[in-house]
Design brief:
- By secondary structure, the protein is an alpha/beta fold.
- It folds into two domains: about 180 residues, FAD/NAD(P)-binding domain (3-Layer(bba) Sandwich); about 110 residues, FAD/NAD(P)-binding domain.
- Helices cover about 25% and strands about 30% of the residues.
- A hairpin with a 4-residue loop joins strand 5 and strand 6.
- The radius of gyration is 22 Å and the shape is elongated.
- The two termini are about 20 Å apart.
- The relative contact order is 0.17.
- It binds flavin-adenine dinucleotide.
- The site of flavin-adenine dinucleotide has 36 residues, from helix 1 and helix 6.
- Flavin-adenine dinucleotide binds next to helix 1 and helix 6.
Length: about 325
């Protein structure tokens, strides 16, 4: 007979792991489908706000999450499983994965988080890993005594600049608007550094290079003449925010203009009955590990209530 899970948790960051631990402890038959376990902050060298632990690296957090997850019963854990489609059926949902597997469940909890937003300019993909960097914490140490450009004036851009302080000899901070948008304390730190030159009103148009990055081209805005300027740099850190990994669910659940899944923040319910979501994939205003995990617990308990109600109705 075809196997139908009570709940399918999609995504293996702090939200997914929290959701699966709770559904398993509620004795729900759970399948856990994820590309990788650990989530986005795996690239972080120091996480100092994971409640209960003073400081740990992203890798340590990922290992702790995986250990806790694997200590549970009732979970069919499948990694390297990217979900490509989520559809509703009469009795729940059907999930398709990029490997070609089809999985059925009564409920789904979407916790697929986000990924780095790209500039979409020439040279960005070509020199990715050859001077173009998306994870500042991971790669800043490779730019010792180098000149680099950080693109993005929000929190991720500012944090990338701070990550580069001990290494880079010169840091251009390329900002599209006319102000910085990140935390005031970090803004002050960045502005006070002699290494940093902030270029406001600059739209990055190209990343230049041969084998490796050699420069960044931008145009000043507003600019009627569209005059292009070039900076000689050894690296370009693209830090312009993230995009939610929700493409596979867009035909099923309501998303906002940013592609984030719209949820009921009390319950984690989406617009589709039986489908819940939590963490960075949703329209939660704060993208943080603790919030992702906490909201996922709410979603898991709501999924539990949903399954119980269905069971009672079927009796
Ligand atoms: C460099 C960096 C440092 C950070 N530092 C901190 C910090 O110090 N403190 C803090 O609170 N927050 C920090 N954050 C933010 C924090 O990482 C996120 O808020 C948190 O990871 C969100 O968790 P999540 O489970 O919702 O999603 P994610 O962590 O993004 O996890 C999503 C998971 O889903 C999987 N996935 C994606 N698409 C699919 C698919 N189609 N099918 C199956 N699986 C899929 C991914 O492999 C991943 O395992 C940091 C983020 C970054 C990038």
């Amino acid at each position: 007979m075809e196997e139908i899970y009570d709940v399918a948790v999609i995504g293996g960051g702090p939200a997914g792991v929290a959701a699966a631990i709770y559904t398993s402890r509620k004795q729900l038959k759970t399948i856990f489908l994820t590309d990788t376990i650990g989530g986005q902050s795996v690239g972080s060298s120091g996480i100092e706000n994971w409640i209960g632990v003073e400081s740990l690296s992203g890798i340590e957090l990922a290992k702790a999450l995986e250990k806790h997850l694997r200590a549970q019963e009732n979970i069919n854990i499948q990694t390297s499983q990217r979900v490509s489609k989520l559809e509703s059926t009469q009795n729940g949902v059907t999930i398709e994965t990029e490997k070609g597997d089809t999985i059925k469940a009564q409920t789904a909890i979407i916790t697929t988080g986000g990924r780095h937003r790209h500039l979409g300019v020439p040279g960005e993909e070509e020199f990715s890993g050859k001077g173009v960097v998306f994870c500042a914490t991971c790669d800043a140490p490779f730019f010792r005594d180098k000149t680099v450009a950080v693109v993005g004036g929000g929190n991720s851009g500012l944090e990338a600049v701070v990550d580069l302080f001990p290494f880079a000899k010169k840091i251009y901070l390329i900002v599209l608007g006319d102000t910085l948008k990140g935390d005031p304390i970090t803004q002050e730190e960045v502005k006070a550094s002699e290494k940093v030159e902030i270029i406001y009103g600059a739209n990055t148009t190209k990343i230049l290079g041969e084998k490796m990055v050699t420069g960044l081209e931008y145009e000043e805005i507003p600019s009627d003449e569209k005059i292009k300027k070039t900076l000689d740099v050894d690296g370009v850190f693209v830090q312009i925010g993230s995009v939610p990994n929700t493409e596979f669910a867009k035909n099923l659940v309501e998303t906002n203009d940013f592609g984030e899944i719209v949820i009921n923040h009390k319950s984690g319910e989406t617009s589709q009955p039986g489908v819940f979501a939590a963490g960075d994939a949703t329209d939660t205003p704060y993208k943080q590990n603790n919030i992702a995990a906490g909201d996922a617990v709410k979603a898991a308990l709501s999924a539990y209530d949903y399954v119980l109600k269905k069971r009672r109705e079927q009796k």
